[in-house]
């Protein structure tokens, strides 16, 4: 089926807007991998937890999702810091294989706790601007998606500045490069591990605030997002911040155009085809370095 140029252009723009939020979800995943060198299997569960936190903030306290960003970002930084410092670290005994098992166990526990508390019901929030659009020529651009895109880009830039310009960022990069050498020059490696995990959870909280005006939450919703995030991390390169941003935007466009041509229910086929092709042709990703 052939579509007119304005329809294709609108699908591409909407894909970019959605892809920015995907990139934000992937940023936390790639940051944790870059420093701890492990895949965080609890990433999707923490996103689900953050989305329920946004829902509670709106439904119980009347706090708009965008206004909840600083509050929930700080809260989930603390949750992530404490989880890594006092649960994952001690339980894993420094073994990467144990860390994978601990994060997988955390994922199962969190999902089942949320299922017990909220059942399997799907929940949404009703904001005044959820369905507002901007008219740009022949295109209709979702206001909430545009705000999400802008916020995601700001967070990505701030994260890059944190890593490149601050003492904490330099410590994070030092630990990512060589944790033994970092510890020998006085860097508290356990603290940096926890800070990194906390930043990853904070980015998830921001992503949740940007998602809830346009999406829904149930106890298993994070699984779908984390599958897309894994694809983005592989595409952009494990541990690469620019790779996660560019990969997220690209995946968003692929999903949007695939959904346009094949139907919304098949929109993610294009994502997983890209995943397979990257693994076959360039396993290190667009910006990743070969081991």
TrEMBL record:
Ranges that cross the membrane: 20-39, 46-79, 99-118, 146-163, 192-217, 224-254, 260-281
Any one GO CC term of the record: plasma membrane
BP term (GO), one: amino acid transport
Main location: membrane
InterPro entries documented for this protein: ABC_transp_permease, BCAA_transport_permease
Compartments in which it is found: Cell membrane
Alphabetical keyword list: Amino-acid transport, Cell membrane, Membrane, Transmembrane, Transmembrane helix, Transport
GO molecular function: transmembrane transporter activity
Membrane topology: Multi-pass membrane protein
Record-stated family: Belongs to the binding-protein-dependent transport system permease family. LivHM subfamily.
Record's protein name: Branched-chain amino acid ABC transporter permease protein
